[in-house]
Amino acid sequence: MKIRFGILSRDLGPVLYTKRLVKRIGLRVVDNLATMTVLKAMGATGPKRNRVTDFYNHLIFRHYELAGYYEAKRDSLRGGVLQGKASVWTNRGE
Questions:
Q1: Model pLDDT, residue 81
Q2: List of the chain residues with pLDDT < 70
């Protein structure tokens, strides 16, 4: 499951772990205002789909995906929004 969903874990083996770590570092490096400005200047917000628009949209998606993950992680460490009440999400053993 860790291999399929891209989870970074030390028990994946050194080659796969290094590959995923380098990929995550690379995405963190290019996820900045300068890169977004350059991509917009290259036409990333245009109506036609191309590699530039795909990369631009991937960066935006990845940015918000990670922001949501870290917000949920912080919330769970603070006791959650429900403050001791049962969670709406249940583990059905899947």
A1: 58
A2: 1-8, 80-94
Domain membership flag for residue 83: no
Give me the pLDDT at residue 92, please.
Answer: 47
> 90 in a domain, yes or no?
no
**In a shared domain, residues 37 and 26:** no
Same domain, 21 and 51: no
Q: In this structure, what token pair is assigned to residue 58? A: 């991937």
What is the number of domains present in the chain? 2
For Cα atoms 27, 35, 71, give the angle at the middle one, nearest 5 degrees: 50
> Pick from 26, 23, 21, 22: which is nearest to 9 by CA?
21
* Euclidean distance between CA atoms 94 and 91, whole angstroms: 7
The pLDDT of residue 13 is 82
